[in-house]
Design brief:
Elements: E1 5-10, E2 20-25, E3 35-40, E4 43-56, H1 62-71, H2 74-77, E5 84-97, E6 100-102, E7 113-116, H3 119-126, E8 133-138, E9 144-147, H4 149-153, E10 156-160, H5 167-180, E11 189-194, E12 211-215, E13 221-222, H6 228-234, H7 240-260, H8 266-275, H9 280-294, E14 299-300, H10 307-310, E15 316-320, H11 327-346, E16 353-357, H12 360-363, H13 376-385, E17 391-397, H14 405-409, E18 411-416, H15 422-431, H16 437-444, E19 450-455, E20 462-466, H17 480-501
Parallel strand pairs: 10-17, 10-18, 11-15, 11-16, 12-15, 13-14, 16-17
Antiparallel strand pairs: 1-2, 1-7, 2-5, 3-4, 3-7, 4-5, 5-6, 8-9, 8-20, 18-19, 19-20
The structure holds adenosine-5'-triphosphate and magnesium ion.
């Protein structure tokens, strides 16, 4: 089927040039952001409509229009409609040759016809693949956005937007796609750090059999698996003397218990320090720090969950931290399990994984005091080195300004949903390549469920209408209206129950 004709390239003061061209439209189907094509001497030139302007000679002079409209309508008196024309200013993206996009070195020809892009070519040009992750529809085109797993997760992904823009919704859609993958296409293991319980719905419905949820209150870290160095990272406040002493004692305890084949917990370590021969002040402060660490009820004699439960191909593990109040405890959990995942992955003991971190700015903050930077080093390490080992990050944040620039700059694909804060926009523009001024403006006007994808996953930035989710929405992510209604319904039911009982 021939592609519809959209208009004719015009000669203007500014062009056509190798970078831009304009065409007067003959078809009102043309929309901002749409991909178009026109034949040139060098081949098929692909363009994207940047802006559309509408003009009419009859309405050019404000004073004449105002004067005329006082007595009668211009539209009724003149053939105004015959003089209306619409111009689409278009960016020349390149020539599509041998299934590749190459830079155009010759402008579009004035007078040449502009057509809708061929759908198959558009798919190829944008890098969509049949077995890719289907996250929605390309805006202005009837094309499913199917992103190749390699391009999306070989490096890392950042999803940035203001609160309520649809980050967790889109993240859920991406998780569904990862879980639905067939083994022959290669499946990742997915681990989610769920701070608000937004992914608990996966435990119901179609994905229940592939999902494990681990209640944050039950999560445990086996102390005997924590190296002295790691314990010092968990206690960043320790000075060098305290570090030396605790490392020595832990080293002895570890070696001894390893020989005996028994685990040890925090009380064992504390008792050992109390018996040790060391400076009294050092001893009491070490005991103090360990007692404080013990108040989090995190350290025990074994890990929960164990790695085999946490990381399996084609499965989702949700670390549900929604019932934990302490930010430090959340950081300790993320630091420990992220380290373990990365280390085991490096040894090839677990499958390639994607670690999704919600509220990433709270786990990997650009500027934070030492006690709140416990999980930052490992997230930055995975960001820097993960791609060599099949360890990918999905960083989700509504405060990109606060997110570590080291981590953010390693995210080769960025998905933006609506952002309106000018500081965030500025930060995004500075830290992400490929975002021009018009895109910055577009980010502010995106609606809920609309996303801009920039970076390695696509060969050109695209706008996407996110598809409907298949997974069940978590009750913890319900709207205020629903929560209020549910509360009242519960109250009525309670009253009815009491009355029935009496
Ligand atoms: N693509 C979409 N289609 C339909 N509804 C959507 C879509 N995206 C988001 N929503 C709805 O918008 C609301 C907010 O979405 P979501 O919870 O994903 O936002 P968020 O960016 O994660 O917010 P927060 O930063 O507060 O966690 C939800 O009720 C969700 O169901
Ligand atoms: Mg969310």
């Amino acid at each position: 089927m021939a592609n519809s004709e959209l208009g004719t390239v015009i000669s203007t003061f500014e062009g056509p040039t190798t970078a831009n061209f304009a065409f007067v439209i003959s078809n009102t189907k043309v929309r901002k952001g749409q991909f178009v094509q026109t034949q040139t001497e060098d081949g098929l030139l692909i363009g994207m409509v940047l802006e559309i302007t509408r003009a009419n000679r009859y309405f050019e002079r404000a004073e004449s229009v105002a004067e005329y409209e006082k007595n009668s309508s211009m539209v009724a008196s003149f053939p105004t409609q015959d003089w209306e024309y619409v111009i689409a200013n278009t960016k020349a993206l390149g020539l599509f040759k041998d299934r590749n996009l190459i830079r155009s070195t010759f402008p579009a020809a004035p007078g040449a016809k502009v057509h809708e892009t061929d759908i198959d070519m558009l798919r190829e040009f944008l890098g969509f693949v049949e077995n890719g992750l289907n996250i929605g529809k390309l805006q202005n085109h009837d094309v499913e956005v199917k992103l190749p797993l390699n391009n999306l997760f070989q490096k890392h992904l950042a999803m940035l937007a203001m609160s309520g823009a649809g980050k967790s919704y889109l993240a859920s859609v991406i998780l569904e796609e990862l879980l639905d993958r067939k083994p022959e296409y290669g499946r990742l293991s997915v681990v989610v750090v769920d701070v608000h319980g937004e992914y608990l719905g996966f435990k119901q419905g179609a994905y229940a059999d592939r999902t494990s949820v681990f209640d944050g209150r039950k999560i445990r870290v086996g102390l005997h698996k924590v190296s002295p160095q790691m314990l010092c990272e968990f206690l960043p406040e320790l000075n060098s003397v305290q570090r030396r002493e605790i490392s020595k004692i832990m080293g002895e305890l570890r070696a001894e218990r390893k020989e005996m084949g028994t685990a040890y917990g925090m009380p064992d370590l504390i008792a050992r320090i109390e018996q040790a021969d060391m400076n009294k002040a050092v001893k009491s402060s070490l005991v103090g720090w360990l007692l404080e660490l013990d108040t989090y009820k995190l350290f025990g004699k074994g890990d929960y969950p164990i790695m085999d439960e946490l990381c399996r191909p084609g499965r989702l593990s949700v670390l549900d931290l929604s019932d934990l109040d302490s930010q430090k405890k959340k950081q300790l959990i993320v630091a420990y399990f992220a380290k373990k995942l990365f280390r085991q992955r490096k040894k090839g003991k677990i499958p390639p994984f994607a670690l999704l971190v919600e509220e990433a700015h709270n786990f990997c903050r650009e500027k934070a005091k030492a006690s709140m930077s416990i999980s930052k080093p490992i997230i930055e390490t995975i960001a820097r080195e993960g791609r060599k080992f099949g360890a990918s990050l999905i960083l989700v944040s509504q405060r990109p300004v606060q997110l570590s620039t080291t981590a953010l700059s390693q995210c080769n694909t960025n998905i933006f949903l609506r952002v309106t804060n000018p500081y965030d926009i500025k930060h995004i523009a500075e830290s992400c390549e490929g975002i021009d001024f018009s895109m910055q403006n577009s980010i502010t006007s995106l609606r809920v469920g609309e996303a801009l994808i920039v970076g390695e996953a696509v060969s050109h930035p695209i706008f996407v209408k996110v598809r409907k989710r298949k997974s069940v929405k978590s009750s913890k992510g319900e709207s205020l209206e629903t929560l209020a209604k549910k509360f009242e319904e519960m109250e009525v039911k309670k009253k009815e129950d009491v009355e029935a009982f009496i």
